[in-house]
Design a protein that fits this description.
The structure is a single chain. The strands form four sheets. Strands 10-11-12-13-14 form a five-stranded mixed beta sheet. With 399 residues, the protein is an alpha+beta fold. The longest helix has 18 residues, at 359-376. 38% of the residues lie in helices and 19% in strands.
Length: 399
């Protein structure tokens, strides 16, 4: 007879998840340096890159959420000067620690269904694609517009130029890496001039072994999660992930558990901690690893959330760029934010509180967090719009 799986409460699962993501660590009280950044990266494993800049580029925000007002140059230096992280396809476009390089090598073979149209274009333009790589090798580092023949055109292939398409092909294959960014545009160089020699010397990890390792890392970063939660962290195939998770649980590397209210079984990392309470506040970018998996948000926080960037304006419920507000271990509200750089203001276009929360408390804490964010973004003040059931209380708290 099979033993029943141990069960943990929904409250305990929430505390485990928040601790695993670094929200039990507390923000540093003094100067924030590279040690703080390394601590956060150690907790969450990677930072998602996204082009939306209505507030601040998304990869800077998870560090602010956990550290407070740190110098953004700290992250840029860690990636493009110290070479402690590099750009890669992991969750999606991401910044990952250099020790991920051998684990990602198997993904650099683009002979998979989703890239076959990419490969066909390359095969039809082989001479040009080869010439682009050779030009970077001889002249690099280069952005697409700096190529001798950038091949500007409109229409097919995501509205990219031929040059950008060729550079991205070599980036996906591992021939080129992002050496820098200029106004958020990738600057490419050959891999051997970007990564440290000791990292390049590491042997590629076979696909199955790499996927096992990524699932273990995902479990550590999440603390506890379903197969879907863990597979999504590094965008692994779900059927293979379920097989590997059962294998890891049978070996004792993970512990299969039931979580109160969850329909699917979950996997608990052996290092997971459940603090007695989570204290503190944070605004979360839509691309924060805590809130990537939307069904997980509902299970952990009873919080329904989606990005409405691609929803027509008249159909949006909350706004264009809405950040959940985390307070003492709960998602208590959300705010639609924009950095109005021309006016020098942080614009809270709409503010909303979750049902059953204390309006005065949430508004006061949110006001303090917005003041900190405005200072971090070097904006002179905060303007609050009239949308949302928290906007009036937020305006009062900011006065």
């Amino acid at each position: 007879m099979l033993k029943p799986k141990p069960e943990i409460s929904s409250d305990e699962a929430r505390r485990i998840a928040l601790a695993a993501q670094g929200f039990a660590d507390g923000r540093p009280s003094g100067r924030i340096d590279i040690r703080g950044l390394r601590r956060v990266i150690g907790r969450i494993g990677l930072l998602q890159i996204d082009s939306v800049n209505v507030l601040v580029r998304s990869h800077y925000m998870p560090l602010f959420s956990r550290l407070g007002a740190y110098p953004r140059s700290l992250l840029d230096d860690a990636v493009y000067k110290r070479r402690e992280l590099f750009e890669a396809w992991a969750h999606v476009a991401s910044l990952v620690p250099v020790d991920c390089y051998p684990l990602l090598r198997h993904q650099m073979n683009l002979d998979v269904p989703q890239w076959r149209h990419f490969r066909r274009w390359v095969e039809a333009n082989t001479e040009y694609v080869d010439a682009v790589l050779e030009e970077v090798r001889e002249r690099g580092p280069l952005s697409a517009k700096e190529l001798e023949d950038p091949g500007w055109r409109r229409g097919t292939w995501w509205m990219r130029s031929k040059g950008k398409t060729a550079l991205e092909w070599h980036f996906r294959c591992g021939n080129l890496m992002a050496s820098d960014r200029a106004n958020f545009e990738r600057v490419y160089d050959v891999t051997e001039r970007v990564l440290p020699a000791d990292v390049l010397a590491m042997k590629p990890v076979p696909e199955r072994e790499a996927q096992r390792e990524f699932l273990l890392r995902a479990a550590r970063h999440h603390g506890v999660g379903t197969a879907k939660d863990l597979a999504d962290y590094y965008r692994l195939p779900i059927v293979r992930s379920k097989e590997l998770l059962r294998e890891l649980a049978a070996e004792g590397a993970l512990r299969e558990v039931r979580v109160e209210g969850w329909k699917e079984p979950a996997y608990l990392h052996p290092e997971a901690k459940a603090p007695r309470a989570i204290r503190g506040r944070a605004l979360l970018t839509p691309f924060d690893s805590l809130v990537w998996e939307r069904s997980r948000n509902e299970r952990l926080f009873d919080f329904t959330y989606q990005i409405e960037i691609y929803v027509p304006e008249k159909k949006r419920q909350y706004g264009y760029y809405v950040l959940p507000f985390l307070l003492d271990g709960e998602l208590v509200g959300r705010v639609d934010l924009k950095a109005d750089r021309k006016a020098g203001k942080l614009h809270a276009k709409g503010a909303f509180i979750e049902e059953g929360q204390d309006e005065r408390r949430v508004a006061g804490e949110l006001a303090d967090e917005l003041r900190l964010m405005a200072e971090w973004l070097e904006l002179d003040g905060i303007r609050v719009g009239r949308r949302g059931n928290l906007s009036g209380a937020l305006r009062s708290a900011l006065r």
